[in-house]
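Write out this protein's structure.
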Amino acid sequence: MVYGYIRVSTDKQDCENQKLGIESKAGALGLCIDKYIEDAGISGTKEPEQRALGLLMQSVVPGDIVIISELSRFGRRLFMLFRILEFLLNRGVRVYSVKDGYTLDNSIQSKVLAFAFGMAAEIERDMIAQRTKEALAALQLRGVKLGRPNGQKNTYHIIDG
């Protein structure tokens, strides 16, 4: 089975750009996406079990392939990314990262690359969080009411390809 995994952090972001990249990578590999797993409006800091990613991880079997736009879509914390990759690779799943241009398997080279990109993703997430806190504090000082409107929640979707 060939899976495409997509995650965007906010409800306002669009999954289509990631999907186009994943489709292009699959085509270049001579593959067809069987199923898309989407986490729309879900932070990469949430544990996989709290996302559709957890369902994907429980579904894969040896020989499956997961194509993702970039490793940071799996998670924004270094050790979380390692746990996810370790789980997938130990299950015999091959992971293709579109933007990074890597094929990850259980080799030492894959582990080194995953470490480097995981560290970069965590640093990027920390910087985004700091800028967000600063912007929210500035809005509060101006009297802007913050928070999600009542009745809205984050969701995830599983889409057959």
